[in-house]
Design a protein that fits this description.
mainly alpha; carotenoid biosynthesis; 9 helices; membrane; globular
């Protein structure tokens, strides 16, 4: 049965794979599970909702995309309830998929400043491209808005640790690629079946295999945010003890009390206790 509402779309196409990756991560001994991975997911969820909501609201009010009759049952700040649900379900889907993979956390956190500046420069280049597209005409507004909105996050992530993302490139590529292709497919289904539609005025009108190029870029970029953010977070947590004493010595005395300890206490969760009999379980 073809879903006719945003809620029906989630129940048919988003909730089942989310449950699948949750079950896989829970039952697979080698999957990441526990306090550290879920704190990372919580941070990603908060950022996804907080950073995406105003941008999404603005584009909807501009008329960049719209929804079919009866698809939306409630909205806030012009953003449908189904969009807010998507802001939560997509990171869970992508994160738990990533946690089923082998995510490397080796490599020194101490990276030369020139190397960090290269990552920052790449983020600035994305910003320049996005702003250029925004200013070049109405047909590139949506694509330009995506790139301009994405650039601060990309600049921070790449400046912080692009060499580690290269080291972890297999996990990064698979972590991004598989859920992106799936989200492309279900987004194309939603557009084809009239659940939502993109403006002809603010898009390029290029739709390979029926998927507008702007939507393809959007889902790719958002999954890049999630995967890169979590890969860098897991690396930071694992490597922090090796640099903590150096950071503390270099930090002003007023800030030292705000820094986490070099060897933070490990909180035991219910999930950890259920896995206490399985020493091979990865909890990070």
């Amino acid at each position: 049965m073809t879903p006719t509402t945003y809620l029906g779309f989630h129940l048919a196409f988003v909730v089942p794979p989310v449950l699948g990756v949750v079950a896989a991560a829970y039952f697979r001994p080698t999957a990441l599970w526990g306090r550290v991975p879920f704190v990372g997911l919580g941070v990603i969820l908060a950022l996804a909702v907080g950073y995406t909501t105003p941008w999404d609201s603005l584009l909807i009010q501009w008329g960049v995309w719209s929804y079919g009759e009866g698809v939306v049952w409630a909205s806030a700040n012009a953003v449908p309830a189904g969009e807010y649900v998507f802001f939560v379900l997509q990171p869970i889907l992508v994160a738990l998929w990533l946690y089923n993979l082998d995510v490397p956390t080796d490599g020194d956190l101490r990276i030369p400043i020139r190397t960090r500046l290269l990552g920052l420069a790449a983020g600035v280049a994305v910003a320049a491209l996005g702003i250029g597209l925004l200013l070049s005409g109405p047909s590139t507004l949506y694509l330009g808005a995506i790139l301009a909105w994405a650039s601060p996050v990309l600049a921070i992530q790449w400046a912080f640790g692009w060499p580690h993302l290269l080291r972890a490139r297999r996990a990064v590529a698979v972590g991004i690629g598989v859920p992106t292709v799936y989200l492309w497919a279900i987004d194309r289904f939603a557009i084809t079946n009239g659940l939502w539609a993109l403006s002809d005025t603010y898009t390029l009108g290029i739709a390979p295999l029926g998927l507008p190029v702007e939507e393809a870029v959007f889902f790719l970029i958002t999954n890049v945010f999630i995967v890169q953010g979590l890969v860098l977070y897991l690396w930071l947590v694992d490597q922090w003890p090796t640099v903590a004493s150096d950071v503390r010595r270099a930090a002003p005395s007023a800030l030292r009390g705000l820094l986490p300890p070099a060897d933070p206490p490990v909180a035991t969760t219910d999930a950890d206790e259920r896995r206490a009999d399985n020493p091979d379980r990865t909890t990070t």
